[in-house]
Input
Amino acid sequence: MSKFVAFKTLAEMPELPVSEARMSWNKTGSWRSSTPAHRGKLPPCNFNCPAGEDIRGYLDLMKRGKVAEAFNLLTEKNPLPAVCGRVCYHPCQTDCNRQSFDTELQIRSVERLIGDWGISKAYRPELPPVGPHKVAVIGAGPAGLAAAHYLRQRRVSVTLFDENEKPGGILEYGIPSYRLDKDTLKAELDRVLDGVEFKPQKRLGRDMELRDLAGYDAIFLATGAHKSKKMFVSGEDTKGVESGLGFLKRINSGENIDLNGKQVAVVGGGNTACDVARSACRLGGQVTVLYRRTENEMPAFAEEIEEMKAEPIDLEFLVAPFKIESTGNRLKLSCHRMELGEPDEDGRRRPVVVEGNDFDMTVDQVFAAIGEDPDISFAGGLVYNADWTLDLSGVEDNLRDKLFIGGDILPQPRTVPHAVASGRMAAEQIDAFLKGVPFEPAARVTEVAGAEDVNFAYFSRLNAARRAHLRDELKSSSDISAAADEANRCLSCGVCFECDNCYNFCPDLAVVRTPGGYRANLDYCKGCGICAKECPSGTLGMQGGRAV
Amino acid sequence: MNDRPDYEFCASHDLYGHTACPGCGEKILFRHVLDVLGPETIVVAPAGCGAVTDGVFPHSLSPVPYLHVPFGATPSAAAGVRAGLEKSGRSHVTVLAWAGDGATFDIGMGALSAIAERNENVLYVCYDNEAYMNTGMQRSSATPTGSWTTTTPASRLKEEPKKDIDAIMAAHRIPYLATASPAFLDDLKAKVKRAREIKGLRFLHLYSPCPPGWKSDPSDSIAIARMAVESNVFPLYELYDGRRLRITYRSASVPVAEYLKLQGRFRFISDEDAEKMQSEVEKNYAELMSRHEKSEISKI
Output
């Protein structure tokens, strides 16, 4: 740094006015009344991902062509990218800040392409050697898979039990193959279960008891929710009435089912109902979906409803069956007409019977898909409280302390990413338990970067033609470079991507590059705020006051 | 993730501690122009923001010789420095005349015309903040119509249009002329690089936001500079030999009103004048476009 030069006498002054020092002694930081600072906001995609993926992070890696790194970062939080890239309800895309600008990033398709890349390359991260601990995981659905996978990565020896022949749970036996093809699922599960011992056809309460697992250091229970809810209509045990989940399981187990020319009624409005209706339609059935409220109240995800409506399926709203009778080899379905009344406790309007408007329909088959409940009666000692929390007081003492529970048994949204997150958290929790250290979940950033934080001047809009086809193009693409192109549209909301704007536009050269980012040189920063305003991602903001 | 150069002249030479106002456009321009030109440069600067913010005697911000000369003498002094360098065998050194709009559009006009006519080997840069800002925001012939300054107050805003300095310089058929903006740094640096490689008089007209003079928020400097380009108030182009024109950035042609509303100096402009400005801007840009399309270098 240059020193301040002061002349005490005339004799000290040079004959010509020549500079003798530079200006860096002049700490212009004292002028500052506001200071650049990181806003510390999360991108909306990361915030909304139930599985906790660092979506912005892997999009950034994809932008730079680092596919393997992107795959690793993604599978750090979700071991099932090829699966979730197909079946996830993609809340990551819902609040994408691109939405108001052109159209939201097709994150799910990018995830699928990354997952498929892992499969096509038979990509397997190296497994660490197994440590001294053994854990039993019961249930090979998304939660159990994630727990088994992450425990094995944490050097735990894992045995995974499932009542079925193949692992996957709902992925294998629930989700229809037109949404998730079996080859992809098998390939992904091969990687996820690398190093995990899988024991098929072991059902808790049938083939084994909880106490048989006392030899394990911990037990993770994730048996899911697949007890179909009762419709509570008379004659629901009549032949020809079946639960939707049971029907999907039969299809997925490879059973030959022929519904050609048959009239099929599907009762319900959730995701299972959509899957059942579309599967029955594919088997040749003439499908009518009966739902007691209207489309607005359907609990199924909007995309599933859209896709169902695109098929030759009849949707009957405001209809509720109350009686099923056998008429030889067909079924007579008696239904009420409904109307919407007052909102109930979850805010949806309650369906009310319209008296005197009942009608009958004749069908060959009825599938009930009005929801599922978890069933833990087989686990011995476990009971639900009224609020769906679990009462473990009946479990034997030596088991209770090492019993961990996750997935759809818990009162949480029943989606694949939620189950995955629950399995991963359980793995972290069990790992801490085995090491005897307290478990502290990572603190969550709650502030989300919105469109107002982004400087759109630094991004270009998609033209209308591209916009119209983007979603379909990416959905059908099998080219990893399409994922990189799409990742290029990422605004990186709230997270620095080292564009150099703050550095370049600083009139005072008070922004210093550091490895992986920048720092303000507060000795000279005058607080003009250009860096914050020109930050494309909204990472930087101005803070009142002259922080030093 | 950028291809960051390991070495940048200004960053490596402590360009800190200058006395320019927060958000100064001139200082953004200076560091990037100097980064391209490097150490083999002599700056010749008249009175103006660039001169007073270079430092207080006996200190100087500049890592290269920075010669302070009288207001109207920049072109002549630069030509003199050039002659001296040639005589002493240092012809590789760039002479950078660094003058504001006052010293270029008004006070140094005669001498500038003279060195342009003689095609002196000087890189003349005008950082244009559209008034005499450091002396207290008096209007210059670079001040646009409808703008407030201390000598064109709200009761009598500037009526005359901005002097078309680029047309005047083009009429001298100098080898290179370009306009550039701090909001488009890649474009700016490319033009400085091109100018450095050409011999003869090169004239760069740089747009220089001035928060105190324009009554704008210091943080808006780059946003205003970008808007000036996007609204075609300050189109980016280059001109070879005064004839072959190339537009270097296709703007989004946003309404001029978007540009005006970011600046307090235009707060008093009448709707009529704003509309006139819009139509003037459109006319000028259409003219530029047609010259660009006729020019054989437009396909570069």
In short: The two ends of chain A are 19 Å apart (CA to CA). The domain at 22-40+497-544 of chain A is CATH 3.30.70 (Alpha-Beta Plaits). The CA atoms of residues 149 and 309 of chain A lie 37 Å apart.
